[in-house]
Every structure is written in C-alpha cells, then in structure tokens.
Design a protein that fits this description.
Blueprint (H helix, E strand, L loop, with lengths): L2 E5 L4 H12 L3 E5 L5 H5 L3 E3 L7 H10 L5 E6 L14 H22 L3 E10 L15 H22 L4 E6 L13 H4 L5 H14 L7 E4 L8
Parallel strand pairs: 1-2, 1-4, 2-3, 4-5, 5-6, 6-7
Length: 226
C-alpha cells in the first residue's frame, strides 16, 4: 500500500483519481478546498481548506503531514477562464497564474520533506500549455499558466533527480468536468469521462521512473511536444 497525496480533490479528475486509488487499496490523502464526505466514506483522509494560492493554507497542510512518507504526490487543482485580445481581463489572467503555475510550485516546495528516494510527483498541466501545439491562439491566461507549469516540472525533474524523485507533466485528455461549465452539448458529448482520464493518469504515474522523468505525457501514453 503506497501513500498518495492528491491536490484539488473536491471534484472532477482529482476526485476520480482518489476514488480509484481507494479502490486499489492505497493510502489516500485527498487535499480539498472544501470538504469531501464521499471520499472520507471511501477511506480517504480528507484534508480541508487546502487553497493552493495561499502560503498559509499550504504550509498548514505541510505541518499536518510532518512525519508522513508520501510515495506519490499529484497536483491536479486548476482553473480555466476564457480570454482573448478583444478584452484582456488581467485579474483573471493573474488568477490562473496563481492557481495553475504558482500553486504546484508552492505545494511541491512545502511538501518536499515528505518525499524520499523513489517518490514520484505528477503535475496535471494541459496540452493548451504546449507552445508548439498552439494552432488556435486565445486563452492567454490558461495557456501561459500551463506553459509555466510545464517549465516548473522540467526544472523540478532536474533538481530532484539526484534525490531519486521522478516528475511527470500530465495532460488528462479532454474531460467532461465543470472546468469549462458552459460547453455546448455537441462538444461535451465528445469528451472522455473523469474515470477514464484518471485511469490513464494513474497508468502514467505507475510507469514513471527516473529514466522517464521530466517528460510531458498525454494520459493515453503519448509523449507530447513542449
Ligand atoms: N477537463 C479537461 O478537459 C482538462 C484538460 C486539460 C487539463 N485539465 C486540467 O486538469 C485539472 C483538473 O481539472 P478538472 O477538469 O477536473 O476541473 P474541475 O472539475 O473544475 O476541478 C478542478 C479542481 O481544482 C480545485 N481548485 C480550484 N482552485 C483551487 C485552489 N485555489 N486551491 C485548491 N484547489 C483548487 C477545484 O476545487 P473546487 O471544486 O472547490 O473549486 C476542483 O476540485 C486542472 O488543472 C485542469 O487545468 C483539464
């Protein structure tokens, strides 16, 4: 039984990850913004009030985890806000950088003392953060924040390799969650369900080694371009 910390577990992909890990019999620590009685009922240890934009909230989580040996840390929390050149909502853009890019940096930095040789870190970014895959523009805040998260993971992979800790950057696929709430039905019906995304992400984390550290993976196993 390995110990997993999943960040952003209130709903969506992270919630599905926690449920599958509980099914597998792993020791699951579900870090939520709010509460999750559903995950607690499945045997997860639910840590509430974990706002990844807050130094004090993330520090408080780290304090509660002192002495816990974490095998796998997966940062999933993220937000998506639409924008384009016609109206550039700077506050929204800054918010996405806070959650999507600085959030995982803050969390990994605070929890690093729980990670020993052999531990793994996954950061869910997005294909929208790939520079070479950008053929449709727009979404300045989301794309920039996810590109920054990819760079964060690339540096972590370098810095943590000598400590025996492997890092994966992860794209979950296009998933039917409330990340983008007002999708038209014909688009939503094309999406995969969070359970399928979670299965793929867990397969990537299971397969992750120091030899494959620092790569950007689609949940389906494809290596994505930066
Ligand atoms: N869905 C997709 O197609 C897709 C594609 C590519 C990448 N992704 C990435 O996958 C990740 C999960 O997305 P999802 O589709 O599962 O979306 P979701 O259903 O909206 O879930 C997002 C999760 O992040 C949490 N969260 C938001 N702000 C937070 C904060 N400041 N501190 C801590 N937790 C916070 C949310 O908590 P609350 O519920 O309490 O707000 C929620 O649990 C995101 O990083 C997203 O960018 C998703």
């Amino acid at each position: 039984m390995a110990t997993y910390v999943i960040i952003g577990a209130d709903r969506g992909i992270a919630h599905a990850l926690c449920l599958q890990l509980c099914e597998r019999g792993e020791n699951v620590i579900a870090a939520c913004l709010g509460d999750s009685p559903t995950l607690a009922a499945k045997g997860a240890r639910v840590e509430t009030g974990v706002d990844v934009t807050s130094d004090s909230a993330v520090h408080a989580l780290a304090q509660r985890l002192i002495g816990t040996h974490v095998d796998v840390l997966i940062h999933v929390a993220g937000i998506y806000l639409d924008d384009g050149l016609e109206a550039l909502p700077m506050a929204d853009i800054q918010r996405q950088i806070e959650v999507n890019a600085l959030g995982p940096l803050r969390v990994v930095h605070a929890l690093q003392s729980c990670l020993d040789h052999g531990a793994k870190i996954g950061i869910v970014t997005s294909r929208m953060g790939s520079i070479s895959d950008n053929t449709s523009g727009r979404l300045y805040g989301y794309r920039m924040s996810k590109a920054a998260a990819n760079m964060l993971g690339a540096s972590l992979a370098q810095d943590l390799k000598e400590r025996g800790i492997a890092v994966a950057l992860l794209h979950p696929g296009m998933v039917n969650t409330q990340l983008v709430p007002n999708l038209p039905e014909h688009v939503r019906s094309q999406l995969i369900e969070p359970e399928e995304a979670a299965r793929g992400l867990l397969a990537r984390m299971d397969a992750l080694t120091l030899e494959t550290t620092g790569k950007f993976w689609h949940a389906n196993g494809e290596v994505l371009p930066w």
